[in-house]
Amino acid sequence: MHRVEHVMGFPVSLRVDDEGDFAAAADSVYAWLREVDERFSPFKAGSEVSCYGRGELERHELSADLGEVLDLCEHYRVATDGAFDVRLPGRGLDPCAVVKGWSVQRAADLLRAAGARRFVLNAGGDVVAAGGPWRVGVRHPEHADKLCTVLELTDGAVATSARYERGDHIIDGRTGRPATGLLSMTVVAPTLTEADSVATAAFAMGAEGVGWAASQNGCEVFAVDGGGQVLRTEGFPVAAQSAAAA
What we know:
The protein is an alpha+beta fold. The chain is 33% helix and 26% strand.
């Protein structure tokens, strides 16, 4: 089964290679992601995130889901000494950097609960994979028509934070200025919650974020710094030529 829908501002593609009917599971995946967009988007005035950001809700009134997301945001704020911060001065509450990976990982969990064992869920370039090996290409940060590496995933996730899609949109919370020390940061981790959050947090830290990301439990890193130098951890799963194509 292969299905693609535009949700949360980007294409989300699902491929399931198991035998059986997973149409209902796919419906649940996209319904969940649409629900997340309504509840957690800072760009929708009536969302729970927007209401909380405006002070219309107290912390104890929040859903358990948003409470979990905010706890993750605070974890990475503290871990990066404030480089990663979803409450920047002059801006409203914006937890999107955590919400995306967290929600797509939850969607992948729905697939597993429905019995899917071999699948790829790709949300705007951030990927959860199961039952591989799968090959996942990482876009070159300076050349849209080229890849800078291809990695192999069996069961895990990969996320990339970079400047090429949305410009200097990641802010270093310590300075209030765009983070420009890296061109791209790719993180492989057991879950997309971790991969996406660590990639964004490390990118916000700049060059020092490479070592920080590599020190996070279960994370492997492929980064391109501001001068175009590649920095890669020894365990980063570069694909073998014989790996199955995704």
